[in-house]
Amino acid sequence: MGLRRNMTLARGLIHGWFIIFSIFCMVPLLYVISISFSTESDIAKEGYSLIPKTFTTFAYDYLLQSPKQLITGYSVSISVTVLGTAISLLITAMLAYALSRKDFSGANALSFIIFFTLLFNGGLVPWYILIKKYLHIDNSLLALILPYVIMPWHVLLMRGFLSEIPSALIESAKIDGAKEWRIFFQIILPLAKPAMATVGLFIAFIYWNDWWLALLYIDNEKLVPLQYMLYRIMNNIQYLSSHIKPGTVNIDISQFPNETARMAIAILAAGPILIVFPFFQKYFVKGLTVGAVKG
């Protein structure tokens, strides 16, 4: 009886600690939301606070002046993220499966090549020449997808998980007459759902948060993703805030959104990911811990 009571008390203390820790982890997000609904003058006078001194949507009104442009940015980012994640995840899983097979004679050499590219890469100039001069895919969604299709870390993480699938399972499928494609799609992939969700989430984060590729390869306004559009808006705000002198234009510079716009941009950019993440959380935790055993 005493042992059970002690275990219950210990479990309660552990749960209480993690609840408190989770609340503290939410504080920065609450600050971001609060600042995005505050005024610049309140931030300058009072600093950051969890509750806005003066509630206003001025930062969002400024960012949403062109809703059509924002919708276009969202649609491009969603398209790139969905297509890029699907393509990258499939190729990553296929490559990792080949590396995890003990009967694949070139596994060690291929693993070394992948690991080498994790440490060293060709750099920006070769990529730029390849995309613009040889492939001619600039100003297209493919230019935003192709550079991140194969990421060495994702391949190694996936291989660590697939290596734990018993080889006897594959051999028994072969005895029953299953070919390699059927083994991969009907046996390996269903067993690798936690790893697929984990790596897929990592890939989705990369595609969703990227603005650098759009800066390099996109000139068509209809193909500008959300992150790059918000990046340009933030640069414009910073330029106006630092170069416009009071009295030269009919604008109150002190109220011009700068810090509040930064936080509003963070909310607009991170919102969809924050909504999607909870649905993959259980797979994310399991895939990360199990896949890291041999990774």
Automatic annotation (TrEMBL):
Membrane topology recorded in Swiss-Prot or TrEMBL: Multi-pass membrane protein
Domain of life: Bacteria
Alphabetic keyword roster: Cell membrane, Membrane, Transmembrane, Transmembrane helix, Transport
PANTHER family the UniProt entry points to: ABC TRANSPORTER PERMEASE PROTEIN MG189-RELATED-RELATED (PTHR43744), POLYGALACTURONAN_RHAMNOGALACTURONAN TRANSPORT SYSTEM PERMEASE PROTEIN YTCP (PTHR43744:SF9)
Localisation: Cell membrane
Recorded coiled-coil stretches: none
Primary localization class, coarse: membrane
Alphabetical list of SUPFAM superfamilies matching this protein: MetI-like
InterPro entries named in the record: MetI-like, MetI-like_sf
TM spans (from-to): 12-33, 71-97, 109-129, 141-162, 183-208, 261-280
Claim: Glycoprotein is one of the keywords in the record: no
Protein name per Swiss-Prot or TrEMBL: ABC transporter permease subunit
Assigned protein family: Belongs to the binding-protein-dependent transport system permease family.
Domain ABC transmembrane type-1 per the UniProt entry, residue ranges: 74-280
